[in-house]
Amino acid sequence: MRSPLAPGVRFCSSFSRDSWYRSFTLFLTFLSYTAYHLSRKPISIVKNELHRNCSMVIRPADLNTTDNETWCDWAPFDQDNYKTLYGMLDNSFLVAYAIGMFFSGIFGERLPLRYYLSCGMLLSGLFTSLFGLGYYWNIHSIWYYAFIQAMNGLVQTTGWPSVVTCVGNWFGKGKRGFIMGVWNSHTSVGNILGSLIAGAFVSTAWGLSFIVPGLIITFTGVLCFFFLVESQFDQSSFSLCRKAQPSRKSPTHYIEVTSSTSSHATERSEEDHTQAISFCGALSIPGVVEFSLCLLFAKLVSYTFLYWLPLYISNVAHFDAKAAGDMSTLFDVGGILGGIAAGVVSDYSGGRATTCCAMLLLAAPMLFLYNYVGQTSIYLNTLSIAVMLLVCGGLVNGPYALITTAVSADLGTHESLQGNSRALSTVTAIIDGTGSIGAAIGPLLAGLISPTGWNNVFYMLISADVLACLFLSRLMYKEVRGWCSRT
Q1: Which of 6, 161, 207, 292 is most open to solvent, judged by the fewest CB atoms within 10 Å of its CB?
Q2: How far apart are the first and last CA of the chain?
Q3: SS3 state at 421
């Protein structure tokens, strides 16, 4: 007696080929941008190792030195200006990233995304590894590390416009907020994995904290080159080419397949020759300027936490480098939950701007409370830091995640474009490029302000949250007025 089809096979066959391509593209782009963020995180973990309190470190017996204060530090970060040098490294990456992002979207609209993304990942793996090789090559020049950071920031601009365009090509607006909210957790997952990988090597050989993430993003770039399907047109072209292969079918069947292939080729040709939108044309899309300026301040807060949170925890809670890095991952865990929550709420309510404003308004007092509890709590210090980090991570990264994913995709396919689908990468690059200016300013300000006290750093972050909310006030008013008119 013949056995029934296996349940797993029945389940797999219940999905169409289009569904499989869509799911695989979502997974592969998730993996790709996880690797991007994984390679950015090590610098924030290694900072605690480059400049330490040498009086609390056991000196090796065979070490001959008369410098009791800086013998365990890595030059040139062994001087009192080490925070300024940290800021220089951060801004070498972030300024190059912000400048390159405005041009990246223009290239992304005109080049094959698979080649563009794969090449960017391979180069990013190279420069990330070169930073770590400075440890083994015994390089102590700040200009070497600053140059590597700047080049890495430039090539990493290939990532975001490419992956958002791929996902936008496969998914419509219906559940875009929820799907992209879940998908955007790659940012936090990458930060968490980057912290854990870098933390595993930071105390023994900090060069591996960069080399291992560099190898991971290189391998992921190879996967993208061989398996990424940019859009449904590419999948459909592959399917039609298979149908058009010579076979023993009737001449009528061959004519039908040839006719279908020709029709699809004409459709794809029209798609390819649609004029890509200009930079000024993308700026004129309603909502692009407001969300871009909002993201500038939202990303300022997020990236200040990304680069300075482990150092803040180490100074305030007196954790070592590995423990501070592990604790900082809770901020990213909260960011995953916040991004998903923002997507679900905005899908249900239809108010992207209102959702962002609500979370930004809640984030401001929570940042104040986190700093107050972190610096005054004695007996519940570790527990309070963990809980507050989760809450702050959700409220800070929720609007940031929503704007860079669902909002960018919505604006890139706005009705004012009249069906022109070649604006998504440019719009995404403008929004994220403007946000990257804030990402560059935030860590720089933190480096300048932190010597005056951490309280002043948090006042700066709270002010940025309020300003981000103000830039969305007009759009929020428009959404609320629309709800009132319907009810």
Answers
A1: 6
A2: 63
A3: coil
CA distance 165 to 108: 9
Separation in Å, CA 239 to CA 15, 33, 248, 257, 325? 16, 28, 18, 11, 47
Using omega within 30 degrees of 0 as the cis cutoff, is the peptide bond preceding 76 cis? Answer: yes
DSSP 221-246: HHHHHHH---SHHHHHHHHHHHHTS-
Encoded tokens for 278: 């200009």
Spatial contact of 311 and 48, defined as CB atoms under 8 Å apart? yes
Query: Quick check: 335 and 37 in contact, CB under 8 A?
Result: no
The pTM is what? 0.74
Tokens representing 173? 């607006």
Nearest residue to 107 (alpha-carbon basis) of 224, 227, 279: 279
Integer Cα distance of 284 and 130 in angstroms? 41
pLDDT, tens only, 317-336: 777 777 777 788 888 889 88
For helices 232-243 and 251-272, angle between their N-to-C axes, nearest 10 degrees: 160
CB 368 within 8 A of CB 392: no
